[in-house]
Amino acid sequence: MPPPPKPCTLYDGRRYEMCDSVGYQLVGLVAQMRREVDRRMAELDLTDAQWKPLWLLKTGRGDTANELARAMDVDAGAVTRMIDRLESKALLERVRSDADRRVVHLRLTPAGDAVAKKVPFVLAAVNNDFLRGFGEAEWKQLRRLLGRMVDNGIALQRSEEHAA
User: Fold this and answer.
1) How far is CA 14 from the centre of its chain?
2) What is the mean pLDDT of the chain?
């Protein structure tokens, strides 16, 4: 078994400046990207709460309200209201399961499918605009570095779960 990694001491609480925190910068970056995605999705007449479930349905990551709620990490009530709005816009429809009448599947309408097909192009354009000036090697390095931070977070959560 490999030895545990050395603790990181890049930040010092005695001289900590929030604006120098990677977490603070990432939160700010995500907020900026979300605002830009929202602005561009509005051109498709979609809100943040609407394009995500359409994309999840389109990519097969869920086809019930409960599956969408789990995938989007929101409560089922919020998903039900969002489904109502998408259904009123004729972008999706509810279809009762033949196998279990208690289950209601969600299906994109042709109009919903057409809109959902545009979503990845909006997301790619926003990402590309925020990565302007980056080369492919830098982009790959950034993804690797962020992946390492995510892995560290997962390891922290696992160690805390085992300690509890």
Assistant:
1) 35
2) 92
**Extents of the domains making up the chain:** 23-132
Structure tokens, 63: 């086809």
| 23-132 carries CATH number 1.10.10.10 | yes
Q: Residue 126 burial (CB < 10 Å; 0-12/13-18/19+)?
A: buried
pLDDT at 1: 67
pTM: 0.83
Give Cβ neighbours of residue 112 (< 8 Å, ≥ 6 apart).
54, 57, 86, 90, 91, 92
Kindly tell me the sign of the dihedral angle through the C-alpha atoms of 80, 68, 33, 119: negative
